[in-house]
Amino acid sequence: MVKIKVDKFLEWALAVLLAFMVLDVLWGVFTRYVAGNQSSWTDELARFLLIWVGVLGAAYASGKNIHIAIDILPNYLNKKNQKKLQYFIDSIIILFVLSVFVIGGLRYVYISLSLGQTSPALRLPMGVVYLIFPLSGILIVYYKINHFFQNK
């Protein structure tokens, strides 16, 4: 039940972020070619939104198990060993995501916020931009743990 709500929230959030990105790029094109003077912030915002859509989309894909996978080995295994292999793969993913996305991401957010790093055009704290990494990491870990319990 919780997974369905998280999925729906991510679908909504990704759609909104993508819509904002499209509007931002259209505004940038309009101001550049019609108004003759491109807004200075449109490219930067599009980059940040692309980062958020990509990383949050990876978490969503992880929850739906729709990532690209090489399935040569599982095809040669029986169902019991396929399950064991999937548990092993999910465990490796959890360890990687916890160490890189969550812990590394939180450190990066902390460092960029403590140094007062801001983006050039929007003057947005870069820690806000980088916050998507630990957030997505937490979502991926949640999805993988949920996958453990669903496939018992």
Automatic annotation (TrEMBL):
Residues 21-150 form the Tripartite ATP-independent periplasmic transporters DctQ component domain. It is a multi-pass membrane protein. It is found in: Cell inner membrane. GO terms for cellular component: plasma membrane. GO terms for molecular function: transmembrane transporter activity. InterPro entries: DctQ (IPR055348), TRAP_DctQ (IPR007387). The chain crosses the membrane at residues 12-33, 45-66, 87-110, 122-143. Keywords: Cell inner membrane, Cell membrane, Membrane, Transmembrane, Transmembrane helix, Transport. One of its GO terms (biological process) is C4-dicarboxylate transport. Belongs to the TRAP transporter small permease family. This is TRAP transporter small permease.
